[in-house]
Amino acid sequence: MTLETCIGGMAAVGAGHTITFCTVPSEAFAPDPSSAPWWRRGVVYQIYPRSFADGNGDGTGDIAGIRSKLGYLRDLGVDAIWINPWYLSPLDDGGYDVADYRQIEPRYGTTDEAEALITEAHEHGIKVIADVVPNHTSYQHTWFQEALQAPLGDPARDRYHFRPGKGENGSEPPSDWTSVFGGPAWSRVDTMTDVEAAADGVAEWYLHLFAPQQPDLNWENPEVVEEFEAVLRFWLDRGIDGFRVDVAHGLVKDMDYPDLGLATDALLTSASFDGHPFWDRDDIHPIVRRWRNLLDEYDGERMMVAEAWVRPERLPLYLRPDEYHQSFNFDFLEAAWKADDFRTIMEKATTAAAEVGSTPTWVLSNHDVMREATRYGLPDGTDWRSWPATGPANLLDAELGLRRARAAALLLLGLPGSAYLYQGEELGLPEVWDLPVEVLDDPVWEQSGHTLKGRDGCRVPLPWSRSGASYGFGENEGWLPQPQVFGELSASSQTGIGQSTLELFRKALHLRREFGTSDETVELLDAGDDVLAYRRGSGLICVVNFGDEAVELPDHTRVLVHSQSDALAEAPISSSLPPNTAVWLQ
Length: 586
Ligand code: GLC
What we know:
There is one protein chain. The protein is of the alpha/beta class. Among the domains are: 9-25 and 517-585, Sandwich (Immunoglobulin-like), CATH 2.60.40; 142-207, Alpha-Beta Complex (Oligo-1,6-glucosidase, domain 2). It contains 18 helices and 23 strands. The strands form 5 sheets. It has an 8-stranded parallel sheet. The protein has a 7-stranded antiparallel sheet with strand order 1-2-17-18-19-23-21. Strands 8, 9, 10 and 11 form a 4-stranded antiparallel sheet that branches. The chain is globular, with a radius of gyration of 24 Å. The protein binds alpha-D-glucopyranose (GLC). Alpha-D-glucopyranose (GLC) binds next to loops. Alpha-D-glucopyranose (GLC) binds at residues 93, 96, 133, 210, 246-247, 267, 307, 367-368.
């Protein structure tokens, strides 16, 4: 279905504005919403285990901590949790460097505890999504260690990408590819081992599209394909409800390794082109189809969501009925605070998903980007990735940022499809932008030659109480320092306070169940340049004012929730909406 065919008609509304009807999905795919699987409409709460809750006081979050907060998550009203990688790992990239996909990292707990968590989450009515990292392993994975020790030509090396260097003695990398984190995407084998792996004096190199500690797997090797299917089964057999697939647009590479002539795309951009040697290659899809078949063998509504940074026109390929159930729509992460930008993204994502019978998957924040309460408080065009090199203090309007973040939350949660929330988003946590450089842990900081601040500022341990060594994160200080403001933003400080961000989320999530999930339709309302407004088939109307002046609200009988004022939410009718706020009406 194209956007044109989804526009069904126009009708007059309010002060001379028109309503554009945009009803999705198309007839061909329209499921019966009452029996639609949970993931089509679920709210998924992302847990970064290292920073969520520390059950044993060692400063690192763990499975015990997650288990202790299941009641909180149930009361918040989420349908599922997605847990960032929890596997054995040296944590060189926060766990996206896996040394054993069947073992839990001891700092987080044990496989038995993981199983207990899955069971208990289910008892709380919460599904559990694991993160699977198929593009690369840790250098500590047995396979890579075996490969490093193996002689040239040994099959153990064929599970990765080893190549002789170019130039005299192979002293130049095999191609000009650069790592997503900065620097060359190839490292010399002799930097990793004492073993001299060279043929005729020509140095050997291995490929890593991310950090040197994350060697890329060779997906043309059947052993790699089989191993990942076994890993998926391992976790499905333990009750996992789905997988978030890391770097789903990676995996397959052009084995001729042609020079690219340009820097590799940054982590969060989707720029690529047809025939790109390592992003979004057509041969990815047969692999995905095998995974989908495998998931379909299991009972229950198991699902897969792709982290695929691809051009919008390529995304539906990943969402075909025999491939991923969903793919993140990351465009909100990059959007400036402009009604038009948000509207365009909404339309594009909704249409792309509907074309293949999927539903959109909305995201405002995750463990890779600056938290939105800070992002929206910065002047348009600020390069938030380069801090602390430039220092934001004088640019940041923290109050405005939070106000907009709360409005954006209502925009997101009112939409059909599923919404992914990142831990702490419900508390309105800001980015911790002024972490001392000595504590920075993200490889991006080092690999970018200290030009990019890295992603630690959104990974600071969560505050659960007003005081204590780590504001209730654990008994002792957490692995990254927390700012003082975390005390008043902690979950317990906000509980029961009508105006708090936490109560706003709770209210919105409960209303969403009541009003927002009984249909998958949305009509865009044209309510003025700085306003984004839509109506759900269930009758819920969401209006977001992106501008600097109050705007008139459409006719309604009740205010369901307001992003700023609780008192207003209690008023039956309100005529105008202040700047940088959102409201749900009936
Ligand atoms: C994904 C993850 C990111 C990680 C990268 C490499 O983009 O979200 O945190 O660094 O993959 O695995």
